[in-house]
Amino acid sequence: MAKSKAKPARTLAAKALAVLSTLISAMSKKDDTFAKAEASTREARKSVVQHCREMGLTSSDFVAPKKAGKGGTLTPMQYDVLKASVAKGYFSAKAIAMLQAVPASLPKGEAIAPYLARNTGNRRYWVQQTGSRMNDLKGLLARSEAKLQAEKDAAKEAKKPQAKKDQEERTSEDITVVNALTNVYYLVMKKASGSIPNSWDADAVGELIKEAIAEVGGSMKASQRSMIGDTELKESLKKNVTDKGVKYTPKSK
Q1: Residue 2, class by beta-carbon neighbours within 10 Å (0-12 exposed, 13-18 middle, 19+ buried)?
Q2: Residue 1: pLDDT band by 50, 70, 90 thresholds?
Q3: Is the pLDDT score of 45 beyond 70?
Q4: Which of 1, 29, 55, 94 has the smallest number of CB atoms closer than 10 Å to its CB?
Q5: Spatial separation of the C-alpha atoms in residues 231 and 16, rounded to whole Å
Q6: Which one of 66-70, 112-116, 171-175, 196-200 scores highest in mean pLDDT?
Q7: Is the pTM of this model over 0.70?
Q8: How far apart are the first and last CA of the chain?
Q9: Is 62 exposed, middle or buried (CB count within 10 Å of its CB: 0-12, 13-18, 19+)?
Q10: What is the CA radius of gyration of the chain?
Q11: 196 vs 108: CA distance, rounded Å
Q12: What is the CB-side half-sphere exposure of residue 141 using CA atoms within 13 A?
């Protein structure tokens, strides 16, 4: 069996970052006609995505480390280096110089277009713009990653024997049946609202439904049918029964 291609190690080397800045700069430029802009932008985006892959960067690397619970994967130092390269690709030299300035060294002032006067307000504007561009690149890579994964999944699905596909389809349908039965069991066993009681014998009807659930769940273990087991059955029960206050433990055949 052939080994899967190893993911490239992440590298934030100066040369690679300089190339990334150049590619981002090309991506941010606009051509003089809409048609040219559409074509050149698509190619520029592909170049940026490809270079990020070669650097071992993923969409989660463009999330601030302080938001690690939401996917940030770089150290604070690595993130700052990457962010500086992104800003260099998008913004002018004056904007970059303002970003590099110590905030306390700048005079106080409001952000006023074109945001190039050196003051705290304009610097804050460029800091916000940098965050926005990092988010744009995160989205660009995330879409590319999703597309790549979808292609891999489709290729994997195409290689599956038809018998396996049929079995998975049967399993999906069987799980739907179990979900429906467990939900009906809950509705039958719950106490009636108001002063009028249920018109059926809840225990008797419940036993019938429990038998149906056990029958469906038990038959699913046959290899010629689907492969749903206790895990899927219990998950359905937890979703439709246990969390709603009705206790029922399946008895697998």
Answers
A1: exposed
A2: very low
A3: yes
A4: 1
A5: 47
A6: 112-116
A7: no
A8: 37
A9: buried
A10: 29
A11: 73
A12: 23
What residue type is assigned to position 115 of the chain?
Y
Residue 166 pLDDT:
72
Residues contacting 251, CB < 8 A, separation 6+: 214
The structure tokens listed for 25 are 């700069």
Query: For the stretch 17-48, what's the b/e string if a residue is b when 16 or more beta carbons lie within 10 angstroms of its beta carbon?
Result: bebbbbbbebbeeeeeeeeeeeeebeebbebb
Q: Which amino acid is at 118?
A: R
DSSP string, 204-227: HHHHHHHHHHHHHHHHTTSTTS--
158-196 confidence digits (pLDDT tens): 887 877 777 677 777 777 887 888 888 888 887 777 788
Q: Number of C-alpha atoms within 13 angstroms, CB side, residue 162?
A: 0
Rounded Cα distance, 187 and 138, in Å: 45
- For residue 76, whether the previous peptide bond is cis, meaning omega lies within 30 degrees of 0, is no
Question: What's the chain's length in residues?
Answer: 253
pLDDT of 37 reads 58
Share of the chain above pLDDT 90, in %: 21
* Rounded distance between C-alpha atoms, residue 71 and residue 79, angstroms: 13
Which of 78, 46, 52 is CA-nearest to residue 64?
78
